[in-house]
Design goal:
6 strands; 18% strand; His_Pase_superF_clade-1; Rossmann fold; single chain; 6 helices; 6-stranded mixed β-sheet
Amino acid sequence: MKLIITRHGQTEENVAGILQGHLHGKLSAKGVEQAKKVALRLQSEQIDFIYSSDLDRAADTAKEIAQYHPNTKVEFVESLRERNLGELQGRKKSELRGDTKDQKAIFAEPKGGETMEEVYKRAAGFLREVIHQHQNDSVLLVCHSGIGQALVAVITGKSHTEIKSVGGLQNTSISIFEIDEDRHHKIVCYNCTEHLK
């Protein structure tokens, strides 16, 4: 199968430095432009199925892409939501900066939110289903940076403790993987933003 992963366009909250997590977020003017550009970049790709996070910032990006694939089914799913940051959601990153153990602990296990291990397990379960259902298809996932990193970690055989090592996904970047029935993978491109230039 071919698996294409893209992150939503820039949001007003990204610009303001606000932690979004499960908050919907609103695409900024630049984010709308990025969504249009990634849609143009993907218009010539064969896409048999689109899965998108059901959060507005990803859903709006997916709808832009889907305009060029009118016969492709789009499914909006909670499994592709960003990491739930619990009580940190809606707060500015600048309020939480620092290297103290307390602040690192807050991010590691946000009250009412998910740990990175939980995000990894969610990504692994979703990916297992997608690979099982779409072995011979080209599938697009429209998601967020954190869950996107977790998906890439699962694909490349990294553990939940290595998620950050795969690097953050840029807004509307494209990563393409070819995955066989034995789950061996080939990276066609990773975190590509050429279409935004």
